[in-house]
Write a structure and sequence with these properties.
- The longest helix is centred in the N-terminal third of the chain and has 41 residues.
- Helices cover 82% and strands 0% of the residues.
- The protein is mostly helical.
- Helix 1 packs antiparallel against helix 2 and helix 2 runs antiparallel to helix 3.
- The two termini are 27 Å apart.
- The chain has two domains: 45 residues; 98 residues.
Length: 144
């Protein structure tokens, strides 16, 4: 007896979820617990480099998401395209946030206001992009 594709997809998702819960989540939690003392020392003593490192990881993830979605553009639904191009803009705003950080000072007007504005614009862009992608996904489900 063959199962429907939807049932098979649900079974695969359930298997993947169980795998994540049993294997990967404990590793991530363990790494976070081990990293707490080092992060506190690094963050309190070397704020500019710590901030730049964490923000650079954020930019890397956003750009990687854009590159993957760009290279699979023809195979992706509209909501993933929205997420991909939105993450490109988020990465741009995060780079501007890094460059305008007062202790780095590449783009500087002498106040912390500029760096906070870039950060807020990046987070607002992220919220709007995710809202549009979810809204588009919801409409696609309804139209069937």
């Amino acid at each position: 007896m063959t199962s429907s594709p939807d049932a098979q997809l649900n079974d695969n998702f359930f298997t993947f979820t169980i795998y994540m819960a049993k294997r990967i989540v404990p590793i991530i939690i363990g790494c976070m617990l081990i990293n707490i003392p080092f992060t506190h020392v690094l963050w309190s003593n070397h704020l500019p480099i710590s901030h730049t490192l964490v923000e650079s990881i954020s930019v890397f993830v956003a750009l990687l998401s854009f590159i993957i979605i760009w290279n699979t553009y023809n195979y992706n639904p509209v909501n993933l395209r929205v997420i991909g191009f939105g993450f490109l803009f988020i990465a741009i705003f995060d780079v501007l946030h890094i460059l305008s950080f007062n202790d780095i000072g590449i783009i500087s007007n002498g106040t912390i206001d500029l760096t906070i504005r870039y950060w807020i614009i990046g987070r607002l862009t992220e919220a709007v992009v995710l809202f549009l992608a979810i809204n588009n996904l919801y409409k696609a489900k309804i139209s069937r």
